[in-house]
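Protocol step 4 of 5: obtain the predicted structure for the target chain.
Materials: sequence only (see below). No template structures provided, no constraints applied. The aim of this step is simply to have a reference model before the mutagenesis design in step 5. Sequence pasted as it appears in the construct record:
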Amino acid sequence: MELSITVAIIAGLVSFLSPCVLPIIPGFLVYLAGTSADGSDKSRWIVFSHSVLFVLGFSTVFAALGVLLNTALESVAYDAQVWFARAGGIIIIFFGLYLTGLIKIKFLERAHKMNAASVSRSRWVTSFLFGAAFASGWTPCVGAALGAILGLAASQSGSAFYLLLFYAIGLGIPFLVVGLFANTAQQWLARYSRAAAIINVLFGALLIVLGILIFTQQLSRTANFELLNQFLLR
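Step 4 output (structure tokens):
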């Protein structure tokens, strides 16, 4: 379970670092706040507060999805859970291959940007609603890492809520950091965009290995390896 949680957090970070998400995040958060990133304390905290609402919006959707998945998977018979696990392994391998660039999927490479017109008279409500809409697929780039986590959840009955919660944490922390330092975040993100691409490839390779272990029902060996390490470190 600890390995799965770690993967979920990394998946959230990778979603944030997706090529069609990363460049537009600072400007989008500033837009939601309705202010400029001029570096003043007032501007910084306004943008940050809207970032918090944005993160709460998508975290709420992911948490609700986790509860629904848990309820559905726990009612499935054990034999069916084995096949769900194998299907989850295939899904994880598929998205791993995509993130490494070994396969191309036009749908996932086409950005679906939302119209940033005000959907509410209150920008506070708008920030929360846009966060919820982001969780529903603001851009397909998020779909690769999120799809892998859903596949992992399908392979582990009862863990969906925690996996999606930690995925939301991994995705949310960078948003909060960018919201707090919006005036310098754009330059910093542009500077390290190449590193973000490398991280995507490395995470894709990790997903391929994880998917193979899940499909072959060998994931428990990683747990045994962790227990051995804990014993040796005593």
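Step 4 remarks: Residues 2-226 form one domain. Residues 116-121, 223-234 have pLDDT under 50 and may be disordered.
Proceed to step 5.
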